[in-house]
Specification:
alpha/beta, Aldehyde Dehydrogenase, Chain A, domain 1, three-stranded mixed sheet
């Protein structure tokens, strides 16, 4: 079979990976996972939960806490309390935490990759060989920026408390894209993963706490669309970062208009870019 055939088919060969450790992690939580707020797992204030399933088999993986107003309020309060002391740390001190998180991802890469594959349904080769190693590199990269903050952009200040809502297609890699730069520059985070793929965000929060990340700096509130809406509308959140559909992005823009919140939207457009007047179009065509 030729190399061209593999490129045409884009088929995956077998890449078995034991799921024993991942199943054991779920079993330690008795198949039930709460929000991660102020450094610990807590149940939903309302007692509500939803299920996350294994796409490969359709079987239940775990019951997940459904975030309501009281849960979001608790996460925001924890993030607000933690943000000031976190921002006052030197860039080098925050970098040490981010380097530790990067090494933690590498140390537990197989566990994270398998949990990701179980919850998301993507091939283990993709989570193990692409998504998780790339996530670790993002934390290393932004740890470097934290180290350089005081010399390269000392006039820049953290935004404050950042609410982040991410989709299901790259659950762990999207977490890294959102969380690493926010923490590096002194912000605290409230992350809401997609309701279909919440497990690796909760696993990461647990590992981060074990690595010594201060309580409240990273909070994970799980839930469906209404949970995300509560985060977007909360008065004590300084910035919203959302990746998802254009339709929901428009709604978020409407809700945040006039609120003073900073906003970053990564929506359904396909690779948009800006071409300036001085761009050398002919040179680009040669590439």
């Amino acid at each position: 079979m030729s190399v061209a055939t593999f490129f045409d088919e884009m088929s995956y060969g077998p890449a078995p990976e034991a799921d024993t450790e991942a199943r054991a992690w779920l079993a330690r939580h008795e198949g039930k996972l709460g929000h991660f707020i102020n450094g610990t797992f807590v149940g939903s204030a309302s007692g509500k939960s939803f299920d996350t399933f294994e796409p490969a088999t359709g079987k239940l993986l775990a019951k997940i806490a459904h975030g309501g107003r009281d849960d979001v309020n608790a996460a925001v309060a924890a993030a607000r309390k933690a943000q000031g002391p976190w921002a006052k740390l030197s860039g080098h001190a925050r970098a040490r935490h981010l380097y530790a998180l990067a090494r933690l991802i590498q140390r537990h890469a197989r566990l994270i990759a398998v949990v990701e594959a179980l919850d998301n349904g993507k091939p283990i080769r993709e989570t193990r060989d692409i998504d998780i190693p790339l996530a670790a590199r993002h934390f290393y990269h932004h740890a470097g920026w934290a180290q350089l903050q005081e010399t390269e952009f000392a006039d820049q200040m953290p935004v404050g408390v950042v609410g982040q809502v991410i989709p299901w297609n790259f659950p762990f890699l999207m977490l890294a894209w959102k969380v690493a730069p926010a923490l590096a520059l002194g912000n605290s985070v409230i992350l809401k993963p997609a309701e279909f793929t919440p497990l690796t965000a909760l696993l990461f929060a647990e590992l981060a706490a074990a690595a010594g990340l201060p309580p409240g700096v990273l909070n994970v509130v799980t839930g469906e669309g209404e949970t995300g809406a509560l985060i977007v509308e909360h008065e004590d959140i300084d910035k919203i970062a959302f990746t998802g559909s254009t339709e929901v992005g428009r709604l978020i823009r409407e809700k945040t208009a006039g609120s003073g919140k900073s906003l970053t939207l990564e929506l359904g457009g396909k690779s948009p870019f800006i071409v300036f007047d001085d761009a050398d179009i002919d040179a680009e065509r040669l590439h």
